[in-house]
Specification:
The structure is a single chain. The protein is an alpha+beta fold. It folds into four domains: 342 residues, 3-Layer(aba) Sandwich (Aminopeptidase); 103 residues, Immunoglobulin-like (Sandwich); 238 residues, Class I glutamine amidotransferase (GATase) domain (Rossmann fold, 3-Layer(aba) Sandwich), CATH 3.40.50.880; 193 residues, Jelly Rolls (Sandwich), CATH 2.60.120. The protein has a nine-stranded mixed sheet with strand order 28-27-29-32-52-51-39-36-37. An eight-stranded mixed sheet has the order 8-9-11-10-13-16-14-15, sandwiched between helices. Strands 18, 20, 21, 24, 25 and 26 form a six-stranded mixed sheet that branches. A hairpin with a 3-residue loop joins strand 24 and strand 25. Helix 5 packs across helix 6, helix 5 crosses helix 12 and helix 13 packs across helix 19.
Length: 1046
Amino acid sequence: MPGAQAAEEADSSFPIVTQVADVKLPQSGEAGKKAYLVTFEAQDAAKVFALGIDRTETPMNSTPDGKVAAELVLSEAEAAKLTKSGVNVQVRGNQSAAGARSATAADGVYKRYAGEDGLAAELLEISKANPSITKLVSIGKTSLGQDILAIKVSKDAKSKRDGDKPPVVYMSNQHAREWITPEMNRRLLHYYVDGYKSGDQEIKKIVNSTELWFVLSANPDGYEWTWQPEQRQWRKTLRDNDNNGVITSADGVDPNRNFSYKWGYDNEGSSPDPFNETYRGTGPNSEPETKAIDALMAKIDPRFVVNYHSAAQLLLYGVGWQVSTPSPDDHIAKALAGDHNTPAIPGFESQLGAALYTTNGETDGFVDVEHEGVAFTPEMSTCETASNWDPNDAWDPDACESIFTFPDDETLIQREFVNNIPFALSVAKSAPQPDEPVSSIGWTAPDLAIHKFDTSYAEKGDEQEVAVDAKQKLSDVKINYKVNGGKTKTDGVQRWDGGEKYGTEDGKAWYRQYRGSVDNSKPGDSVEVWYTAKKPGKGKVESEHFTYKVATNVEPGADVLVIANEDYKGVNPTYPAGTNAPKYANEYLDAVRAGGHKPALWDVDQQGVPDALGVLGHFKAVVWYLGDNRLTQDAADEFVPVGGGPTLVPDSQVADRAFQLTMEVRDYLNEGGKLLYSGETTAYYGPLRGVNGGGIYYGLKGEPQTPCRITTSYRDDCEILSDDFTQYYLGAYDRGSVNGVNGIVGTQPPLAGVNVGLPGTASNPINEAGGFLTTSTVLPPAQFPQFTSYSAAEYAGVPSGPFTPYEGVKYVAGPHQDDVYMRLTRTIDLTGVTAADAAKLTAQMSWDVEEGYDNVIVEAHTVGQDDWTTLPDLNGRSSQTVPAECEAGFYLKDHPFLAHYLTLTNPCTPSGTSGQWNAFTANSGGWQPVAFDLSPYAGKQVEVSISYVTDPSAGGTGVFIDDTKVVTAGGVLDAEGFEAGLGPWTLAGAPPGDHSPAAFLHTNSVFGNSVVATEDTLLFGFGLEQLPTQAEKNAVLGRAVQYLLD
């Protein structure tokens, strides 16, 4: 805090705090956000998620009539915007009579951070009262100059060097509005300190042998801000992003997205938009709050970190930047956290951090990788949960102001604290030997965890690799195996580096994965495998044994595996009775052979899911096809019951083998494999993809073999097969069905020059071909090279529409992105033209943008001068209507260059510092001719930009431009239809002062891509079997496989 007095400790870089002070907060520039109850149809989910909420803390609940209900923390402008779009929006909580009764029940338990009665002052009191076991230090300063305080609890806290004993960090309140978390941590601190003083032997043992660090508020500025009128729902820090001296929704950084590990990895796990609640900041570790936590971690290298958040009743651990990715140290985390059926915190859901959604730049991954600790995020109980505990108390769940406003009630807070104590203590007890966890639920971590499979496709003489996770303290790790019950053979192992994608350091502080090989087996052999090692103080330890069979149906020398995933035993579609083999397998096998390769077949219906090491890893490439299979479903998967009522949603669930197969293929790609994935419904995730977080269900939560049913939460009730695999591995960010197609036209390698028909098959006509939006369209390769993807082919016969080229096969496209300023720019030389020549710029333009909030403008200025203005459409389709809610300021704050054309008043005026406002908005109704008068620039050079400017959330399809011309009374001066290039136009960046990284695209039809390519994969939106002849199938597959193997 400003004015804090500190004394330097000889062995510490952190000053000891001896006095605390108050803080002066900045002024608010707008009314604070409130919690709203939002009800909407599933298909409207994009409008809601575009507002930049944190999905981890925003469960989507079902209503009895099958709609979606969610609590969203919104500004008044955001609430008004959703209402205008047709979403039902109602402010929550304490404005009702029930809320007033609840407020009367408040005990005043919560405390501010600063000031004489705040948390900081209490920390100082504790440290003074317990000098032998505590030390209070400042680990850094906030943006406002407050000390970020950490108190060390350990025997001889001041005299022992920090980090000498096994350290544990309990931190809280990264997100300002989560008041229950610093209170949880405050009580835990007292539990240790008071227990030590009272002689509690369990506590004394922990305090004597470990080093406990408590950071009650990792975001003191934000927390203080939530005590101001109308700011209770503030989440971020108080970083003044626009440096205007007041705090608005454009300010603040999410400190749980600002850490260096995987910072900005994608725009789903964090946001580049300052208005967004998960805004990651300007760079890794850019924020003082992040630097402070990093400094503490670097100083002590904690064994464990418990990072308290709210509100979702979750206990999260492990990899956050990629979904469904276990890591070796998860054996420790799971032993401490439990699982769905046995959670370490009763009533919580224990699971991988990215079982639901990804996060990047977050604390857990940073701790796990950068500081080799094991981190947990308990998401504490919601207001509704706590208010329901006692039906006779004054707390009404319907009156909760938000899920984050845990009741200010001593009884309820203490109950939540007590529920969390066993897990909190188990972490401290485990610190001396993290790989021998002392679990509150009695679980242990295995010394050796072997990866098992049933079948190997190893050829005679091939090695079969087998994986094991082993504690790092083990020595002499060996693979052991018997072939056909014979003599035991033993061999050494090698450390596995993590593969191409998964990373080399995730979760490997205490465990490592090793690989051993089985040699000299042959088809038909039965192989028993296990691992052994030497453990300090115990001697020999041994893993589970498992047995696999070496397949006999693999052609010697096979280098391409065909996975037949026709699901002919399934129900979507239902196959003729007696079907017992894949229909199209031979067509794929023959096509592989025609390309000079030897194929092998895996039939999922007969053989189950192939293992990445046991099967897939024996092949240079894999061809995975669906055939007639729309979705892999058993009879119980056809419909998902929603809301406990009569609503049954089709196409929303797959059998759990679909998830398993996807994960095995992803593991194979991570090991360096190559993949072609083919079928009309590849990357199709059904109608609930928008509300469940992006994916399709594959069973009940914790019981994936039991069909999904949504009773309360679209997010939490069922397991989800995420769309991240097709987005980030296969290059298809989105998919839509393209109707009316009749062929494939190759545009880039490996299919450049291909032009074949697409008649379909008798049982599977072309009626929902997959049209893909490439991931690189949304995440530009210059910023996200790890997701580079491109269109290798498009569809022929696509009916001309508003979002396909007006003429020819190419155009300039601006698919919608939030908060962008795209420019298509050129200079037009009119030095030889007079005003009487009536020069005009004409074009064909199609737009579908959010009415009022997103706009298309045509900007012009004399070259070398600052006389910027926007040009009206001579055909009357533009308007001088100012942007919706312009007076709120967010549009101009994000796009300050627009001040040339708009003046921020209430209401805004359609003129600015140099010119006038003219814009296109809403939906054009397809391609429209537009024209702009250039006669004022006769005799000069004029720079013209067609620009797409969007607000921070939601939007339509985008803007599309074709057939541009400069014309005069005497005829056409020049024309550009973008077929061979951009001609005089350039894809210019945003104007000065604008943070937008997005740009228009010179491309074929954005939404008609039939094949998407990445370095290692090809994704087809049709089946190879749907091509006309075997010769054409051979040619297309031959090119594809050669591309993958080159």
